[in-house]
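Provenance and format

Records in this collection were gathered into a single text stream. Each protein contributes a sequence line and a token line. The two records reproduced below are adjacent in the stream.
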Amino acid sequence: MAANRWSAAPTGSLRIPERTLPLLRDLVKAQVGLYYDDARLHFLRDRLVPLAVERGFDSLLDYYYLLRYDADASREWIRAVDALSVQETYFWREADQLRALADEIVPTLAKRGCSHLRIWSMPCATGEEPLSIAMALDQAGWFDRLDIELHAGDASEAALHRARAGRYGERAFRQLAAPLRERYFLTTGPGEWTVRRELHDRVRSWTRVNAVEPQHWGLAACAHVVFCRNLFIYFDSATVARVVTSLADAMASPGYLCIAAAESLLRLSTPFELQTCGPAFVYVKP
């Protein structure tokens, strides 16, 4: 039976009644957009079982009822999202889009008379992406020429806590050139670097935000450029379409949407057009 396969991993004394994992799957998708097909339900189980055990439950179904109905559910969702979030990122990831931002997109907007520019990185994970954006813009001298608001948001409070602290280990720098690390970071311990304050302060806000709740996005979503990379690979196509439509509704016009190379909107009907911007492909709201 599929239910037996889903509960095959050691879970201590915690019971996983039949259909509990599909119920949790549907609830997680509705709440935060993340989708786990049958082949990945074991990831959902492995991340939520420890939280249920910490709560003292003897059944994972009790944890579902907590998330679904309890008055304390909003607090527990913070812990659940932290557990479910994938925080694999690093500086200068998919750098072609960073170069396109500094060399093509910002100059185009400046020529159109844009003197106040807003950029949003969502999800920002532990901060490497918005700080890479800040480095690219600083290298090109744009902070001296334009008023640039750079905002960052993520669903994981734990990730945001690390981003606000600005401390990083060796793996975060595997694509960043040594001169950039020396310029923008200070060594603060064995194998640890802290971002210099002048760069960290370029990110004006680090905000907990749910990608499937556009009513709570705030002004950061009214951006000329949105980096929304490596999020849609965890969503089903219907959820991607909803989020992209909400982004198009919120963004300035023209607006530039940067998604990851592994992601595509070409099979969806969206307000964006895929265009070449220098070395990168970017979705553009006309």
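Adjacent record:
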Amino acid sequence: MSERAEAVRAMIAAFNASDTGALRECLHPEISVRSPLPDVGIPSHVSDAGAYHGQGEVIRELKRLTQRAGGIEVEIRTLEEVGDDGVLFEFLALIGSAGQRTAQLGWSLFRFKDGLILSTETFATESAARRTIGG
């Protein structure tokens, strides 16, 4: 497994474990995150769209999002390196408490700098993600 793929897996594991220290180790200090949870029209949770910058703001938003949704667990379904600095992966987000979870598929594009995650952008469809890579 490549260094970038390992970093994505480590970040998702840290997110799932609510491990702030481990998250900081994965994220570049200048990280930028767009749309942590794509809007696909699921009425069971509030859409979360926006842009967040810097480790502190990104980690606070991820915690707030998880609390507001009643819990989120992310599973990576596919993962591929793109270009010199990216990883594109499909994920399944299990949203809500254990007894009332909904599942949401999405795609994320992570970009790297100095071996750390510099930016993330999340999409509702693979085609939207690939258009961003191509453009």
